[in-house]
Design brief:
Chain lengths: 378, 290
Amino acid sequence: MKIHEYQAAEIFKKAGIPMLAGRVAVELNEAVEAADAMKYPVVLKSQVLVGGRGKAGGIKVVQNRKELERGFALLKGLRIKGYPVEKILIVPAVKIKKEFYAGVTIDQLRGDVVLIASASGGVEIEEIAKKNPQAIKKYYFQRSREIDRTRFREFVEGIFDRPAHREAGAAIFSSLAGVFFDYDCSLAEINPLVIDAGDEIRALDAKINFDDNALFRHKDIQELRDTCFDDPDELEAKEYGLSFVKLEGNVGCIVNGAGLAMGTMDVIKLSGGRPANFLDVGGSSDPKKVFHALEIILRNKNIKGILINIFGGITRCDDIAKGILDAKKKLDMQVPFVVRLIGTNEKEAKELLAKNGIQTFATMREAVEKVVKISKDN
Amino acid sequence: MSILIDTNTKVLVQGITGRDGAFHTQQMVDYGTNVAAGVTPGKGGQEVYGVPVFDTVAEARGKTGANTAILYVPAKFAKDAILEDISAGMELIICITEGIPVLDMVEVKKALEGKNLRLIGPNCPGIISPGKAKAGIMPGHIHKPGPIGVVSRSGTLTYEVVHNLTISGMGQSSCVGLGGDPIIGTRFVDVLEMFMRDDETEGIVMVGEIGGEDEQIAAEYIKKEATKPILGFIAGRTAPAGKRMGHAGAIISSGESTAEAKREVLMAAGGTVVDFPYDIPAHFQGRISV
């Protein structure tokens, strides 16, 4: 789960990280009020949950109220990677002497937490890694209490030149790591961390992503979720326990298991069709899930055919069949669908569907070829 | 031969009194697996499908000699359950549970350091050595004993591959599900090594997917050490970047984590990568002894 910069900044501030005092504005008068209370120049920062906002023109420095009014209107009219800008964070402009990068994340291969810092910040860390890999320093650890002071001191020396900055920087890194562990983050990042004209270290940005699997232990974080950036169908699917990702094509897919669901999409594409979605009904066996899956997929007006591809293990094929029949009864199923069922209770499922005039396919190849043909002819 | 589990495996089921635990205990026993014990704290003394239930792993291991733990416990208790297995000295831990917080797995990985035991999963279908033992949730009847080793990051896609092997007359030595999470106990390269050493295994199927760089590490190994034919399928060629595709670990976050990048490194290393999962048996034709 992602949160906005202003929300992440609040969390960082509470942890003792030196953030700028900013305010969020939805309406122009709020922005004017906030900027007047600071001192011009101020920076207007679009609050969106997608990366690349700077490049998309989502950040503006303004020198006076007139520029603020113009800049505010401009940002409010922006769509960044398709998402509208609703909130704008206003912070005082800072004269920057030097930029750094600081981020804490998981190193999947090692199974460790890693603090990544670089004395060349401001751009995305992937870019630094490509252009100047030796500028990136990494510190691995498993628990926030396990930070080894001697090792950590050496680490900080590799980033900051002056002792005062090393001390302040070390405190910020520790706080950042603390936030990472306290809130079960998957990413806690400051980019850029800067030394300003007054020689103070300040965090000019705040980014936190949370581990969805750990949200159950952070009720306060769950409340920060901004769902206006999520696709409503994807949100609804999640409520029913379905993993759903919308794509551009016209062949709807309902599959059990993430691997087979991806594999089915791939095979549709290679067979000349265009998959319209990823949908994993999950492991458990519940006819209602199939019903809801069909309900959501049928809303997509591009759909020309639907493929239901089930390899029963924990999932029982007869439960899937019941869901299909229920949907056929209650939904307006104008779109032709192709069913392939195999595995647990396959026989019962096929009988149930045959009784209701629904043919099933034995192999994935036949079912895919059939649905692709339908999607082209239809 | 086979790898990881065989007729000597004595399984201990954690979370045996739960819905999934009880159901799959029955399935494993029916397959012929030696399920020696079950553990659910506070439910010691009960029986599930003839399997005695204990309060702790240590007690269960002491009284029954169980050596392989399989976990069906809810995600929020999984870390403690795995740590209990580690301290009780279980030799193999298979974690079926999906949805374990990543930082819990960081702690588990730390606890595993320097210990002579192996974790499979989490978020995996488990392991089957056809005709010998099944410690997992896969449908047993689609498998048959034979010379193909299967290792995979997913569940049902593996069943698809196995089913096609079996109907083509190609049985399996062992099938290992590694799991779909970002941090897992055992990787492709570990299982590839085991299959290379296993006399019964003549060919290997590797089912990968988007996310992470495990396939790249496997490719390095294949280039240097592989002596048996390796066929690969990588799922997620049509997956959009930045979107989690069902599995917590299946997300394109860099150039290396795409399906195309993984396909390329595996082919460059000498593996064969197929477009259609059901084409795998045809590619083994003439390369193995069936």
